[in-house]
Amino acid sequence: MASQSQSQSQSQSQSQSQSQSQSASRPAVLVTRAIFPDVIERLAQYFDVDHNQPDVPLDAAALKARLAGKAGVLSNAADRIDADLIGALPQLRAVCNMAVGYNNLDLPALTAAGIVATNTPDVLTETTADFGWALLMATARRVTESEHFLRAGKWERWSYDMFLGMDLHGSTLGILGMGRIGQALARRAAGFGMTVLYHNRSQLPAEIEQGLGARYVGKAELLRESDHLMLVLPYSEQSHHAIGAAELAQMKPTATLINLARGGIVDDAALAAALREKRLFAAGLDVFEGEPKVHPALLEVPNVVLTPHIASASEKTRRAMANLAADNLIAALGAGPDAGRPPCALNPEVLARR
Ligand code: GLV
């Protein structure tokens, strides 16, 4: 802890002296987490940048203190920007999330306070769908479980029933949430000759369904019919525990479940119990309730593949996300080529009022 607070104060004094050496008229912004250094340099062309390159964890109080006097923030999906924080920051004008999901932002409170909020859609769609496929294949074909077995020196000879898994080709893929990433998953499924079912708040237009080869079904049918069920819906109060004990009980015991979306959409304790009791074949999880903590019961079961929220983590895509978040921040604070027109405004009505 001592070294953490030491590096925190070093980082604060570094950025304070950086601020003092620059013009007092430039807006001040905070980048809450470590990021590609060239993105900090881009922001520094327009703003006095308080960065966190040592990546010191900022709890709610530290975030509030670091945001005092700032006009904008380049935030991360784990930074909670709630009504209490917003109320304490009358000078704040832009919150630019480096993530497509924005359930960490209180959007109505930001809008009411006249603060522009942005996210980073599109640039991560294909990379996230690629990773969804990797997680699906690893889960269905028991890739990590069998590798752990091999690394532990337990492999003595080949046998006909070693690590039998479930096929993807010719199976039924269920997609819960059919936005950009859900559709990218459906396109991949065509190459595997899968039947694609989906459920979403609204049904897609017929020509898009046809192009994807996907059929809209009710949630109960999706749960019942899917051999592999992928979750790619946004987190909200309505989607909290969308997959809990009751839903798991409706799935085939041979099915796999993949959560690429957000922790909290799955009841992780109920999932661990279903996996332990073999009521579900396997699961692949990139996101967790209360992450970076992982429910201890999930760590105890072998039939789950666990990854640390890396679905968008390709070199190219994380750079694109960081630069898009910076583009949004620069434009939202009235600078750069798109001044006043951030490309991914979530509440454009705020811009119209300015
Ligand atoms: C990552 O989880 C994102 O929302 O971009």
TrEMBL record:
Compositionally biased spans, kind Low complexity: 1-23
Q: Which residues form the D-isomer specific 2-hydroxyacid dehydrogenase catalytic domain?
A: 29-337
| Residue span of region Disordered | 1-25
The UniProt record lists the D-isomer specific 2-hydroxyacid dehydrogenase NAD-binding domain at 134-311
Q: Which domain of life is it from?
A: Bacteria
Key words of the record: Oxidoreductase
Q: Which Pfam families match?
A: 2-Hacid_dh (PF00389), 2-Hacid_dh_C (PF02826)
Family annotation (Gene3D superfamilies): NAD(P)-binding Rossmann-like Domain
InterPro entries noted in UniProt? D-isomer_2-hydroxyacid_DH, D-isomer_2_OHA_DH_cat_dom, D-isomer_DH_CS1, D-isomer_DH_NAD-bd, NAD(P)-bd_dom_sf
The family assignment reads: Belongs to the D-isomer specific 2-hydroxyacid dehydrogenase family.
Listed name of the protein: D-glycerate dehydrogenase
